[in-house]
Amino acid sequence: MNYNEVNIRITPSSAQMNGEDIAWSPSDRGILFDLFQKYAKGYAKFYKMDTLSQLGFIATEILLQHYPLTPQQHDECAIVFGNSCASIKNDRDYLQTIIDPNSYYPSPSLFVYTLPNIVTGEIAIRHKLYGETCFYVLENKEQLFELADHQLRLMHINAALIGWVECENENNFYANIKLLWKN
Amino acid sequence: MYCIAHHILSPLANGSKANLQAILLGESALSSYHQHFPSVEPFCASLFESAPTFKQLCIQSASQAIQEANIDASSSAVVFVISTTKGDNLQLLSPAQQIVRHFGNPNSPIVVSNACVSGVSAQIAAWRLLRSGKYTTAIVIGCDVQSQFIVSGFQSFKALSDSPCRPFDAERTGLNLGEAVATMIYSIECPKKACWQLTAASMHNDANHISGPSRTGEGSYRCLVDVMQHCDTADIHALSVHGTATPYNDEMEAIAIHRAHMHEVPILAFKGYYGHTMGAAGVLETILTMFALENGTLIGNPRYEACGTSYALNITKEHRSLGKLPMHFIKMMSGFGGCNAAIRLSYCGCDEL
Predict the structure, then answer these.
(1) pLDDT tens-digit map of A109-118
(2) Which of A143, B135, B218, B263 is the 20 to 30 Å CA partner of A13?
(3) Strands (E), A27-128
(4) Residue B291 to residue B240: CA distance in whole angstroms
């Protein structure tokens, strides 16, 4: 059976769902915060997240608000994400807390985000998704989509979020997330 | 998918067989380190003396496994799946590309970075890749090396024990970190000798907390239920657990195992010998479980004195004899991000060939 498919893309300067621009009110706090204010205001965990998690979180939030899953799809929805630089932006932020012996103060709240798969956990928690979550580090997004798409069909999974979420630094990030589901 | 060769290189020994022999003798490389990395507090870990790089370890272990399997790693029908959390100094993709190039393999590497679950997730990825028909052989390498970065982070979490860890014991206080590399080569073709076959796999999220294990063991329980489909508990000869020796992880696993009615299955836990080897753990511990069961032994959990979880499990300090030909075992893992994974491996005896 074929899957229904919708997608979202977010860059530092644009957000599009299924190729159409998403309207939002730009402020000087950046697109992720602006979209958060519009779509998920009140979800305080957002403020603790690293940029990679914020990116994946808000993109998924918008998708699932427009295309809600059924209870059974929720229970089984898989999250298969990937990128080429893992958690490098947050790794560097954590390094800053340990690199200077005179101000050595390793931060547990930063350390927990030094794994790229944490973004999949944040999304699973927010939407109560109990399906499989996995993170791959690959050369390009085509490789991820091929890998994930094949897995989905092989495993007969009834809903999945498949996403390329990349964050090199605060000003350089990109998300392209697809939601696939069966009727 | 059949495991046709494997190799372990750890601070304890070089080679799967040498590693099994060492733990049968109760040896461990866990020891105390003072001022080993800048600024970090003293810690107990299992580290290589010569401080090899991630890439060196992966190439060394994979080379030995490839030699044993007698395969051509440069073939386009061979895919490399690499399990790691921190790779080579925070770089994951570039060392993986260099490893693949070292072996002249034309395919892009698949790096799995799924926290502590990575080594099992990598085997599941390999299984699916082989089932796609695009490849005949998958070389799964699990590896992590320790650093100031990792040790300081776990210390900030207060997750480390300053003495050799005690998984599931009442006196457990935390985990030890470890270094290792382990390689498994999986093929779609049966090697025409007794071997292990991956027969079921599952991954589930707890949807509960990014760093704390679920109080109901939800994701882990769901994984166990999945891999137990079409299989009797009596035919599962070992549950090779995560068993980090942190209070919460072990408690969560005990709850999940009870919910799945598997508390009578003998538990194998290897962190008491190797510490938590992170990206290597899922591969390392799968190999050790296969090899121990083939050897007819249920490996003991060193320093285990008294049950330290709400639900009792079938754990002993001493090694036990399996007393029969192995049938199936389950390898289970859980990690940050709420991820859980389990695989079932089944012994393919000569009578089936």
Answers:
(1) 999 999 999 9
(2) A143
(3) 78-83
(4) 12
Quote the CA–CA distance of B341 and B121 in Å, as a whole number. 7
Contact A147 B339 (CB under 8 A): no
- Output the pTM of the full model: 0.97
CA-nearest residue of chain B to A119? B337
Among residues B187, B219, B238, which one ends one of the domains?
A: B187
8 Å CB contact of B157 and A121 = no
CB B174, CB B246: distance < 8 Å: yes
DSSP E strands in B125-266: the ranges are: 137-144, 177-178, 180-187, 195-205, 236-240
Q: Which residues on chain B are in Cβ contact (under 8 Å) with A132?
A: 202-205, 341
d(CA B51, CA B164): 21
> What's the domain range around B151?
2-187
- For residue A23, the distance in angstroms to the closest alpha carbon of chain B comes to 30
d(CA B109, CA B107): 6
Domain with residue B302: its CATH number is 3.40.47.10
A130, two tokens: 């109990």
Q: Cβ of B113 and A86 within 8 Å?
A: yes
Cα distances from B94 to residues B60, B99, B304, in angstroms, run: 17, 9, 41
pLDDT digits (tens, 9 = 90+) for B215-265: 999 999 999 999 999 999 999 999 999 999 999 999 999 999 999 999 999
* Cross-chain Cβ contact B111/A118 below 8 Å: no
Query: Which residues lie below 8 Å from residue B18, measured CB to CB, with a gap of 6+?
Result: none
B144 strand-pairing partners: B180
CB < 8 Å to B148, chain A:
98
Q: How many domains does chain B have?
A: 2
Fold of A4-181: Peroxisomal Thiolase; Chain A, domain 1 (3.40.47)
Which of B89, B247, B85 is closest to B158 using CA atoms?
B247
The interface predicted TM-score (ipTM) is 0.97
Domain ranges for chain A: 4-181
Find the residue in B nearest to A117 (Cα): B114
